[in-house]
Amino acid sequence: MEKIVSIPIWYENDAAFDWLYPERIQKLSKRHWTPLEIAKKAARFLAQDPKKKVLDIGSGVGKFCLVGAHFFPDVSFHGIEQRKELYHYSLAAKELTETRNADFINVNFTQVDLDAYDSFYFYNAFFENLAKEDHIDQQIEYSFSLYTYYSRYLFKALDNRPSGTRLVTYHSLEDEVPPSYQLVDATVDFLLKMWVKR
Ligand SMILES: C[S@@+](CC[C@H](N)C(=O)[O-])C[C@H]1O[C@@H](n2cnc3c(N)ncnc32)[C@H](O)[C@@H]1O
Q1: What pLDDT, in 10s, does the model give residues 57-66?
Q2: How much is the pLDDT for 140?
Q3: d(Cα 102, Cα 80) in Å, to the nearest integer?
Q4: In what order do the strands lie in the sheet with 102-105?
Q5: Fewer CB within 10 Å: N-end or C-end of the chain?
Q6: Residues of the chain under the 70 pLDDT cut
Q7: What residues pair up with 122 in beta bridges, in sequence order?
Q8: CATH 3.40.630.30 fits 9-197, yes or no
């Protein structure tokens, strides 16, 4: 008899995934959380080796990590998120989806040793400091100088990574991408970009 492999309901499409979260979080989805198909593409590029640790810098409610962890069960996905509320939603979604190979930390990314990870996903996390509207909340300070500080900090950390390090950016202004990273692939609209350190 043919074996039927079913995808858990959450991973069928973006609307289904959104049901893991309360309505306020669902409403932020289109603007702030990675679309499912983009997350799959990015994770495929980053999950090259089962021993690798993939880090999402600014993991929000955990969507990229949970999707990556589901489709690439041998790879570990890690998320850093500065907002406590979003961090708690990522933990709740991890529990609901019974995901084993994803975890989350609630800190500013500058407080984490980025050298402990092998490859990186970055969905324009610092742009909220430049945006005039559509903020996630009004709980934190936004400023141009924070944008510059974070972008430079990440630029330096990425530049110090060994040759072969993989990076995926989505909607990025590329201020955090050092010239030592070579663009190796992109989606046709050039919003999702895959990079490898020379
Ligand atoms: C555009 S959302 C992307 C969320 C998630 N990566 C995804 O793809 O679904 C960016 C997230 O980065 C977080 N963030 C921004 N600056 C941060 C920082 N300095 N440290 C940690 N998280 C940060 C924001 O709170 C927000 O949740």
Answers
A1: 999 999 999 9
A2: 87
A3: 11
A4: 102-105, 76-80, 53-57, 119-122, 166-170, 192-197, 181-186
A5: N
A6: 1-6
A7: 169
A8: no
Distance from Cα 86 to the centre of ligand 1, integer Å: 9
Ligand 1 centroid–CA 183 distance in Å is 23
CB 192 less than 6 A from any atom of ligand 1: no
Q: Rg of the chain over CA atoms, in angstroms?
A: 16
Write down the pTM of the prediction.
0.96
Q: Which of 10, 30, 37, 59 to mutate to test the pocket of ligand 1 (most atoms within 8 A of CB)?
A: 59
Strand partners, 79: 56, 104
123 lines ligand 1 (CB under 6 A): yes
pLDDT (0 to 100) of residue 51: 83
Does ligand 1 have an atom closer than 6 angstroms to the CB of 14? no
Spatial separation of the C-alpha atoms in residues 77 and 53, rounded to whole Å:
6
**What are the helix (H) ranges across the chain?**
14-18, 23-27, 29-32, 36-46, 63-71, 84-96, 144-159
pLDDT tens figures, 43-99: 999 998 888 899 999 999 999 999 999 999 999 999 999 999 999 999 999 999 999
Per-position b or e across 1-27, b if 16+ CB within 10 A of its CB: eeeeeeeeebbeebeebbebbeeebbe
Strand partners, 53: 76
